[in-house]
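anyone else get weird line breaks when pasting these?? whatever heres mine. first is seq + tokens for prot A
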Amino acid sequence: MRYLARTADGDALLGDDDGFVPLAAAAPEHASVRDALPAAAAGTLPDPDAATAERIPRGKRSLGAPIAEPGKLFGIGLNYVEHAGDLSEDAPDEPASFFKPTTAATGPGGPIRLPPAEISDRVTAEAELAVVIGRTCRNVDAADADSVIAGFVPVIDMTAEDVLQRNPRFLTRAKSFDTFLVLGPHLAMPEAGTDLSDTTVRTVIDGETVAENVVGNMTFPPRELVAYHSDVMTLEPGDVISTGTPGAGVIEPGSHVRAEVEGFGSVEADVVR
């Protein structure tokens, strides 16, 4: 697996499981991770071995969010049939999508900042696999989605559940507090056509797995979500489609949350108020 990433200081990196090199040392034509997204979708980024610099092991890099300024942020509700059942909901006939503002995005470690208790005293966190768009596109067929996908990112998504329970029309408010989407720590770039169905997505809070499932149990798989949204609007490099969660757990100040996506990495963050 190859990865695009950014240091905590914002330097662009290209790497694999053995470590990272500066992106500029391997592909000097790309000034940033965002600039490299079309090449990631096309599969034309060079191997890190071609870089003029030696790899630095992953453990010696402090990573930030892989994209400094993400584009449109989509969330998908009730995409795992079992999760819909847990919430006494029917799985939707079409993707139940919503927007989150870019100000909700933060990087590995967070922290996730809970709103004042008088606004919400029940926030939940959930692990998800997110798709990052690499090329400007419209009306993409699901069979061709790999040609516009730059890669995949583990994310932690938050919901102010008590706000949402007061009125389902409050979904935007419940999902949009600052730091309510943790992205990172890298953009994973599998080979085109990689079968995602056995990929396990796991929500872990304070070391306990509170929910897990495999992508194959999604009602709408990632490539179908790309196709669906491209029929509605133009998708652009840096847009992120978070594909839904197997389940969520309540978080409190002092909690530690981890989203694990097997084969694609994990991201974690502390919780504060």
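and prot B, same format (seq, then tokens)
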Amino acid sequence: MEKLLKQDEIDALFRAARASSPEPASGSAAVRAAVAYNFARAGQISNEQLRAISMLNDLFARNLTHNLAAWLRCRFQVNLVSAEQIPFSEFLMRIPEISYVTSVRLEPLGALSILQLDLGLAPPIIDLLLGGNGKEGPLRELTDIEEAILGSVVEIICRELTSAWQSVGLSFNFEKRQMQTQVARIMSVNEKTLCLTFEIRMPQGSGLLNLAFPAVVANTILRRLTTDWGRRHRHSPETRARIRAAAGRIRLGASVQLPSVRIATREIESLREGDVLRLGISTAVAAEWRVGGQELGTVEVVQHGTHRGGRLQELNRAGEHEHVS
């Protein structure tokens, strides 16, 4: 028998339902809080771009470590410290009062970048190149002869930068030393620059090597890194040849086997020595050749002397593109 509700009972149910449901948020609380946009953060380096930049400069640091260590005949270590985007005015504030600053022209863009080397590294480097033991010296301005010697070191740095950054198509050309009053005229003080900082360690001292790229160069580098870096070869032809030769000596498990079939459990349980198990496979079906668990083709089982082998009949589509020896 169905129960009929009166109007006052129906109203009571609706009031109870409304009381148990949460109240809707007010207009001011429901609107998501707005956050002011900081235009100064536009165009910041992404994590992917930062990883690509770090890979390039780690290569530069390793090459410079080996080449300068051999040239100076002493222990010489270069490490990447940071890669960041900062205004050029902030980069200028980081340059010590007594420092070695040069302009480097980047081709084919024709833009100028800044290379700054702590002068604390100059005395031991110059002493080593003049046949000494690399002793430290006071922090002072360089003579003309010392400046020419240190300029040859900067040329080697530019050469290694060109070698490491060849994947983005840039060439670093040492131009000339810049005085402190001239450096601020190379770029606008408000221009956002890509700043790379390296730490140089020697037995007789340590210091920093800083590079600052203008926005046009930074944008070109970042664009080419994100679009071309993944498609370019990251190793020289000689390195790829050594990798291929090393990979060719890797031994993989291989087998010649019949195609897989399904067998009822009762047939396996009733097997006895001497029984013949019917696989339901035609004698015309070729055996499979599997390497590393992957089927590469079909073979005919043959005998080669005292060993068994397989005569390759057909490669599958995956194997047609491989070099089979």
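btw re prot B: The chain has two domains: 44-230, 285-325. The mean pLDDT is 79.
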